[in-house]
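Trying the structure run again after the queue cleared.
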Amino acid sequence: MLVTNISVMLGAFLLLSVVGFGPALQLTSSTYKRRIFVSAAIAPTLGLIVIAFSLYILFLLGVPIQQSALPVTIGAVILSAILAVVDWRTRPLQYQDILRGISRLKLAAIIGGWLLILLILLLPALTGGEAYEYFQGNPYDATSYNIMAHFGRDFSAKDVGNSHQYAAILQRNPTLSIAMTGLANQRPSVSHLLAWQAVLFNQQPISLYYFAKLLSFLVTAALAAALAYQMGLALWQQLAFMLVSAVGFWAVFVSDIDAFSHIYSIPLSLLVVFAFIQFEREGLTRVISRHRWFLALALAGLLCFYQEITLQLIPAIALYYGVKFLFNPSRSTLKVIGLHIVTLIMVALFLNLMLAPTLNFAQAQSQFAIQGVNTQSWAGSYFSWLFYDRNPFFSLWGLRNLTSESNGTISPEIIKAALLLSLFIVIAT
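Done. Tokens:
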């Protein structure tokens, strides 16, 4: 079982890479010296978007993933191949010189770093066995995502709330009654990807759930390498960035609390950053450009997978342009800001049929946050030592139990230890 699940994960990564490679070649800047390698690194994330969007649109049109998975995959691979051939015919010299002048040591280090991340990701399952592969910190969300995957595999959006189908669905799987109430159409893209893997490799979604989480981190590591290259980081910094992004605290945290959609927002967020940097460098003044299309596609993908973090990105981008205008209050800066109306239109075009359910779910989540419907943070409940402790500075380093509870005082040794640990982080940064 373990070998099968690992093989499925690696097979899915390869498929996503193939699907996304053609689009990546068309969207990445021609100014990158190693454009083909950069395209290969961002390809898995673009493959996520292509497959997820295709499955979701067909799901809304009444086609379950059991019927759409194979045709969508074949069609996406063919499209990617066509785009790659077009790129090869347009820039044949880049392919002839693909390995010329490249440091073999650097290439081997990046590939070795990715393989190291793969090993680190697999260690818990290899050492802990099947018991470690299932739900962890938040079984409620994990159950919901698996139910959505089962529902999307066998049924479509037209079956949600359909009283005529209720008996048939209950006979197939009684737990799917939860999805019938509307759950199946609430941010389902990540569950659709799980169902897609299950159909293609003839497995049950629940058996692939843990490794579907790991798949996202493999995709993240590849994209982190591309983003580090784009920012001109040194080799050791690129490797560190890959490790921190794929197996760092935030990755482990969202994995342990089974925040499945949040997990897939990590590579998609990095893709938004990558596309935004490329746009800021080259695509500012043109109304229609591949850089603007790229940014719009990345934003649409992130919005579809995880609306919550996208809503946080909007004020961040607004703040960026506000500061930019403050230091350069010119008409050209205002033009750049105003032209992002075109970017938003492109986002809507990419989402098309998915736009309404995506915005509806974003609105519902915003209302929950504003009205305080979710009064207890489950993340805070599981990690109370970090969120609700009286001395979070010391708790962060695991020193809480060394404090004196009798009189509330903290020994000088504890203070020194916490300060030294914090100072080490500052120096390392």
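The CA atoms of residues 168 and 204 lie 20 Å apart. Worth checking whether this holds up in the mutant runs.
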